[in-house]
Amino acid sequence: MTPPPPPLATVTQPVAVVSERLPWRHTFISLRVPNFRLFATGHFIAVIAIWMQRIAQDWLVLQLSGSVTAVGFTVALQFLPSLILGPWGGMVADRFAKRRILIMCQSAAAILAAALAALALTGRIEVWHVYVIALVLGLVTVLDQPARQVFVHELVGPRYLRNAISVNSTTFQLGGLIGPAIAGVLLTAVGAGWAFAANAAACCSTVAMLLLLRRDELFVSAPAPKSKGMLREGLRYALSKPTIYWPWLMVGFISVFAMSLPVLLAAFADRVYGIGAGGYGMLNALVALGALTGAVASTRRRQLRLRSVVLAAGMYGLMLCLSAAVPTLPLFGAALVLSGFWCLMFLTASNQLVQTSSNMSIRGRVMSLYIMVLIGGQALGGPMIGFIAEHFDPHAGLLVAGGVPALAAATVAVVLARKGELTLKVDLRNRRGPLRVVRRAS
């Protein structure tokens, strides 16, 4: 007699662990998969354009309104739909074909970017136009992000999933290095309209890439049948697993306080250092340079542990505090590079841990809740951080952005140490590192 299947909350794929050090030729091993190689190429082009639009949009709002708070409000409008409707987007991702969802979403994003470009190039654009388009784009993101996260598994399968997540982060940050620099040049030379036009073209190229994928080589999972309580089921599943809900908690602190860094950098570029649009693009590029290094480092991470997530979150917060304290622009730029590195080490570790701890049949809902916290938190944090930067001081805003997550990480570390009876061991003779977290002897 066949035993009944175990409860859903106990069915999960194991966290991938690589016991030996990977050779450098395997750093981007997931690119050996033809479908993922094509997807990564299209994604890279799209990310450059997305960063160009983000930088141009923020700077345009600052110039039109003269208010850093208005920049934060724009961010809030773009991310608010994910905060409210995020779980619904995950349910849709579990029930329908991810590739088809992405094609529809990228087509809509192309139309919105083209509308923004037309308004900017004709000189008719006003702040409320940006607000409306940002809000509608946020609605598109509700469906796009969960489907995109889960679609990576369909491209590479379980074997290369962790590496593919890191490769995606690498391409995102490499695009984040190039996009702001190009946006800074375009803003200075010809204005924001051409940055929006470039994003519209990139969205069209993404649609073409999705249509060219070899459908017979996709690792397509059976869609989850419609049933009552699907969202509650996903939430119960996530809260039953420490490797999901602790990263969620840390992502919450990071997203609300520390992910609105571009808002703060606009204030520093305009009011502290007076370096204009080109300088604003440069500051964002420095963050992306550090993040690119962190993304590459994450591809070589041998073990994926909860403590790695907490450590990276704490270090990111501390680096932001360091950025607030340095007195000169060169030192500020160097601190931003370090901030970007630890931000990506945190984001890749938390994303990988949540995905590999989730059963495939419920992963869309789990990731939608994760994205709801990650993106939706910025809807709350953007206006708050912008208000502090405008009405108090940009340095105070940066100190709050880093200090709160750092304190949260320290608190979580103490709680986890007590639960696991862990202690910090100092061994100066250890070549792998003088500090290690070990289990306390009974």
Automatic annotation (TrEMBL):
Its main location: membrane. It is a multi-pass membrane protein. It is found in: Cell membrane. InterPro entries: MFS_dom, MFS_trans_sf, TM_effector. Keywords: Cell membrane, Membrane, Transmembrane, Transmembrane helix, Transport. It comes from the Bacteria. The keyword Transport applies. The chain crosses the membrane at residues 35-53, 101-121, 127-143, 164-187, 193-213, 245-269, 275-297, 309-326, 332-354, 366-389, 395-417. GO terms for cellular component: plasma membrane. Gene3D superfamilies: MFS general substrate transporter like domains. Residues 30-420 form the Major facilitator superfamily (MFS) profile domain. GO terms for molecular function: transmembrane transporter activity. CDD domains: MFS_MefA_like (cd06173). The keyword Transport applies. This is Putative major facilitator superfamily transporter. It comes from Arthrobacter globiformis (strain ATCC 8010 / DSM 20124 / JCM 1332 / NBRC 12137 / NCIMB 8907 / NRRL B-2979 / 168).
